[in-house]
Amino acid sequence: MNQLICATITAALATAAPLTAAETVVIVNQKNPATRMFSDQAAQFFLGKSSIFRAVDQPESAAIRADFYRKIADMDAGQVKAIWAKLVFTGKATPPKQYANSAEVKRAVAADPKAIGYIEKSDVDDTVKVILTLP
User: Fold this and answer.
1) Which residues contact 83 (CB under 8 A, 6 or more apart)?
2) Domains in the chain, start-ordered, CATH in brackets?
3) What residue range is the signal peptide (predicted)?
4) What is the pLDDT of residues 39-61, one digit of tens each?
C-alpha cells in the first residue's frame, strides 16, 4: 500500500505544472521615445511623484498589481492606497485609471502616447513597447 501511495505521489509531482510567477513588464506606447527605465523611475509615475507619463493600473484585486508594487517600490496594497489617499486629499494628484485586466491596460497604452502601464510579459505584442522587465 505504501509503495502505491509513493508511486502515485511521485507520478503526480512529475506531471504537475511548475508554479512560477509570471514576469511583469512595464509598457509604453510605440510612439513614446522612452526605450528603457529603472524600477525607481517607474515607481514615480505609479505613486504620483511625476506626471510626465499617464499611469494606467490593474484592478486592486489583481495579483499582478500586488506583485508589481512590491517589485518597484517594496510596498503592499495598503501602503500604495495610503499614498494615493493622501495625494488625492491634498489635491496634488489623481490616481491612475484602473482597467479590468492586462488586455485592457495594453489597449489603453497602445491608444495613448503618454500612457505607461504594466502587464504580463506573455501578453506583449507589437502594439506596445517594453521599457522595463521585472523578474
Assistant:
1) 47, 48, 75
2) 21-134 (3.40.190.10)
3) 1-21
4) 999 999 999 999 999 999 999 99
